[in-house]
Amino acid sequence: MLGADFTFPRAIEGQPTRLSDFGGLQIGRFRTSDDVELAYWVAGEGEPLVFIPGWSANGALYVYLMVLLSRHYRVHVLDVRNQGLSQRVSFGTRISRIAMDLKEFAEHLHLDKAHYCGWSMGASVLWAYIDLFGTQGVRKLAFIDQAPSIYCHADWTEQERLDAGAFTSSPERMIASYTQMKPVNMLISGTRVLEHATQMDSPYYANALAFAQSIIIDDMSYTGQVLFDHATNDWRDVIRSKIDAPTAIFSGEYSDWLHSQRWMASVIPDASLFVYSKADHGDHFLALKNPLKFSSDLHGFLMR
């Protein structure tokens, strides 16, 4: 598939030892209306389930989720522009354009109805999609641990900040900490997400990250372009008023945005909230660190 096999560094009982053990995994490509080639990962048969990864993430990180969920669904993971195996470009680096890419991706696959799951920035892409196109074509939705607004406005009350999950008053300095590893304190960027990203406390996560790093070269000069737009959007109006499909929300006790996820569950009609404990790897990377529990919980929700 990728020109060479890959052996996962940590052995996990009952899971593939090598990439070639995962039969049926494929990579497809299509071109958007603004002529950008996007890659996507696909496996399995059944109802379509589409994943939109978070910022700088890619389909390779979803390898165990695809192994597990492809037993029940036709699973697709879209590498958004400038990420994963998709083309690097210096235009269209906005959440709204990525939402259009998602619409064109569904049209490319002729998906009349599908389940959609967005993690981190991928959830913001889904909110933009719903804002622009509504929930037509959506069976069920799942959002994984994304703050409705990253940027905290100076005139917000503390309750507004908590509901929004906002954690920075300086998007530029926050972005520099992500893309250039510049030091920043918790008053400027009140999150431990980078700390959680580097904790190899799950063999699933360690293996998926090793696989991704073996085939994908990230270029922050491209990846970072979308961050200012991502950081300065406030999606609370969409979350309050435009989500009318069955919705699951996933977060954890060690998430920086748990309060905002509870707020989302309170305003989305009949939303289901899943909060993972520390033992369940309940941080921002819960789906990648604990794919067994997450795939089981997501499948249970989708089957209701």
UniProtKB/TrEMBL annotation:
A GO MF annotation of the entry reads:
hydrolase activity
Alphabetized, the UniProt keywords read:
Hydrolase
Write down the InterPro entries for this protein, in alphabetical order: AB_hydrolase_1, AB_hydrolase_fold, AB_hydrolase_sf
Q: Which SUPFAM superfamilies match?
A: alpha/beta-Hydrolases
Asked whether the UniProt record includes Hydrolase among its keywords, one would answer yes
Gene Ontology, cellular component aspect: membrane
| Keyword RNA-binding part of the UniProt annotation | no
Domain AB hydrolase-1: from-to ranges? 48-285
Annotated Gene3D superfamilies = alpha/beta hydrolase
Give the highest taxon in the source lineage.
Bacteria
The UniProt entry, under PANTHER family, shows:
AB HYDROLASE SUPERFAMILY PROTEIN YCLE, MONOACYLGLYCEROL LIPASE
What is this protein's name? Pimeloyl-ACP methyl ester carboxylesterase
Organism in which the protein naturally occurs: Geopseudomonas sagittaria
Upper lineage is: Bacteria, Pseudomonadati, Pseudomonadota, Gammaproteobacteria, Pseudomonadales
